[in-house]
Amino acid sequence: MPQSVIILGGGIIGLSCAFESARRGMNVTLIEPSALGGQASGAAAGMLAPFSENTEQPDHFFQLCLNSHRSYPAWIKAIEEQSGMSTEWVQSGSINVFMHEADVLPIQSRLQWQNEWGAEAQLIDAAQLRKLEPMLAHSAIAGVFTPKESHVYAPKLVAALEEACRRLGVVILSHAGKIEEVAVQQSGGASVRAETMIKKVHADRLVVCAGAWSGEYERWFGLSVPIHPIRGQICSYEHQETEVRHMVFSSQAYWVGKRNARLVCGASEDVAGFETSVTERGIGRLIRSSNQLFPFLKGKETAHRWAGLRPATRDGMPMLGQVEGMPAVIMAAGHYRNGILLSPITAHIVADLLEEKQGEPSISRFSPNRFTTIAMRGRLST
Fold first, then answer.
1. What are 320-341's pLDDT values in tens digits?
2. How many Cβ atoms are within 10 Å of 327's Cβ, its own excluded?
3. Rounded to two decimals, what is the model's pTM?
């Protein structure tokens, strides 16, 4: 009989884990308290930029991001074929723009190690910059062009994953309300009951993909889950495809042109609990950055403003792996601003763990138990 799995959380990570588990033949039930892709996933710019987002060193987290990025072509193909829907994957390449000579000086060491990992990045001067992006301000003096980076349209990726999951037989319980009970048997198996559910759902295994809300599960698992929400505020402008051709990064913001005639600018970040409203201060910072780097946007009204909650851990890395002492429970949470990028590798690691296969060699670095001391474990479990 196929293994049964409960996925707690219907963001990009939960949907990805459900999709991969279902296509490996498991019986999957996904439970989401509110709307699918309603927080970090739905608000994301969808950037697949392991080199632009990791500029310091090729540590284990960078390698996780890079491995996930390399699996994206096959991942997108599988989702689009199963769902019959487009995710609008655009292989645009990216440009990191520099405004000051001092910013350019340390770039050679970054280029050296990133190119050793296959970035194919190159330092370009002002003339080359404007050939690639004619609308850039003349105050931009140099940039790093990374041709292999790309982006997807996050809402369409979420929609395609949902449809793919449904076609594979995943039972999706969205708008289930607050999770009121999680019971895990030491001998194996778990059950979950949410606010709107008449009865519990039982399964052999449980995968927690609850994003910024993952800390609520401490009381059931005897585990320290220091995941907190970071509000990311984003705006967009009406946009023609020729105006901004690549993903563009500066020290202040990023810009990504989408096929729905929108130029997405993000992200102004702050700590505001679970508040998802936008502020004049947060959006104002993005507008000022846009006016500085792209003069054609000066005086142009934003078309849309929104915010999402990014699940951040204390050390900036996800909590990914088996929960110690609970063989039925796997965590896949705390991906911060890399949920879209890390969705395929996370789904494959989780499915391998469910099948008790040897997973990613460096997965121990992301152990969900790493924040829990022995004393704390005892206190949380009482």
1. 999 988 999 999 999 999 999 9
2. 16
3. 0.94
